[in-house]
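quick one, 50 residues, struct below
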Amino acid sequence: DENVQENLDHLTNNFNELQMDPVHPSLPAPPNDTPSLPATSNEKTIITSK
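---
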């Protein structure tokens, strides 16, 4: 039973991370619209590496 509860905790943690994730993709999104700006893609790399 403890194993099942542990698995549930993992699933809950993963789900919570997934819920928070959509906030981050909105940051790197603008650079995709303007790929001609190297500085913006560098910022994107910095943001995603955090």
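DSSP finds three helices and no strands in the chain.
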